[in-house]
Amino acid sequence: MPPIRFALAGFGAWGKFHAQSIAGNRDAKLVAITAPSEASREEAWKLYPEAQIFADSLDMIAKVDFDIIDIATPSHTHREIALAGMERGKHVLLEKPMAITLDDCKAIVAGARDHGVHLAVGHELRLSSQWGRIKEIIVAGTIGDPQYVLVELSRKPYRPGASGWRYDQSRVGSWVLEEPIHFFDLARWYLEGSGDPVELYAYGNSRDSQRPSLYDNFSAMFQYSNGSYAVVSQTLAAFEHHQTVKVSGTKGALWAGWSGALDRTLEPTAFLKVFDGEKLEEVTLTKQSGEVFELREEIAQSIEMVRSGKTPIATGLDGLWSAGLCLVAEESIRQKRPLPVGELLQF
Prior knowledge:
Elements: E1 4-9, H1 13-23, E2 28-34, H2 38-47, E3 52-54, H3 57-63, E4 68-71, H4 78-87, E5 91-95, H5 102-115, E6 119-122, H6 131-139, E7 146-155, H7 169-172, H8 180-190, E8 197-205, E9 217-224, E10 229-235, E11 241-249, E12 253-260, E13 269-275, E14 280-282, H9 291-308, H10 316-335, E15 339-340
Parallel strand pairs: 1-2, 1-4, 2-3, 4-5, 5-6, 7-10
Antiparallel strand pairs: 7-11, 8-9, 8-15, 9-10, 11-12, 12-13, 13-14
């Protein structure tokens, strides 16, 4: 069976990990790369001499024959690149956030539908041996019906990104769309049995008066009509990278933690403890947990999506929901009040 041909848009810090994961999968072939600068294009050519190297993603899409485009460019560019690929009938793996506005997210979802292509969104934590295992435990009924979810991160400040895009609000959109978007996605996934969220209230502040709307500290709570609720919280004013998840259900509870000197460390520490109401067990994680490892699973899933049409674990609608919750949270902070959720995300 021939390998699935990937075109990669973006060769920044995280895009390089995408390239490694594609090149490292024997069922994939990296046929083209868009790199943001002359230096990064030179690096891409040296590392992947069989791939065609481009300065512009639209030029790559027009000139290269591929099966799926993997988009790892700055968030504000996602709509244009994704729709250009879809118009050529190509499948899409799109890094989160899908886009930085609800209209753009909805346009991408509509584009996949209208052009009959598959769309996977990069919520790779769902594929984690740790965070994904939590979902399996919930589905198995071990802790009963989940009623409360906490996802919390304490870490060092964000990297600037190519040409400083991550500290430019016109390009990044929001820091809530960076990592908290993953936590909204996890919490909503864990509480899937509760339906859709109905209301959200958020708080945030910044240490830098020059960027008051890029929040170093952020917390949000969203609830469901059945009374269950979730808390998502992050600080960028700390050190290293430490994530915690807690879920309480009608029978028991679980607690998981992940720590590393950096978010992309290859040597993290991780644990998962589960209480079924009677006994406490520490779950053995069969694979390492961390976004570098989960990205490899995401590439493998994308290959299966292209070959068999299997629905990805995070669809375009999932991406729309997670981005939408982030954007509603931003609005809640501005208005200093809880806001309804569902009606804003109808598609």
